[in-house]
Amino acid sequence: MSLLQQLVVRVRQLGARWFPPPREVRRPRALTGLPEWAEAGKKRRAHVKRVARLLEQWAVEMRPSQQERNRWLRACWLHDALRDAQLPLGASHGGAAADRAEQLGETDRGVLDAVRYHSVGYAGWDDVGKMLYLADFLEPGRRSRRKQRARWAKQVPHDRDRVLREIVSTQMRSRLRAHRLIDPHTAAFWNALIGRDSG
Asked: Is domain 28-139+148-198 in CATH 3.30.230.80, yes or no?
């Protein structure tokens, strides 16, 4: 090998070290059902399917991008994936599902936060968390306040944030009447919702 050829090889090696080829960006695939690792019984699976159907209905009216719609559905299929699992004392099923999904490659922080806090709310949520919270609460299989839930569900595509405030305030009032603690995440979520209006 000539000196010139050796020099070319060495420059290529150094260039590869300084300017590595771009890593392939892994796009999370769209989930079309509960993940393989889910531990959810028949009733829970039916609930998650109803949540997914409601999100799909809203997506038709609200017209989010395909990527955003996929985020809503990934969060939906993950949120109760470990609802029927035997978890350590103090662990939440949402937190456990978010941790498992992250270990298995989910990198979207908005999806993970939606799953982790779907039962209580979270001040740092983007749209995916809010949509999952609404759909989980408003899915038509829930027995209490069916007419009110149906009215709210129809209003979501046109006035999402108002419906969200009404639901969070209803949840907090219910806990106060029962003399139950309000989760700090719920209180912070409420404050964030109200703060956006007044600020």
From this structure: no
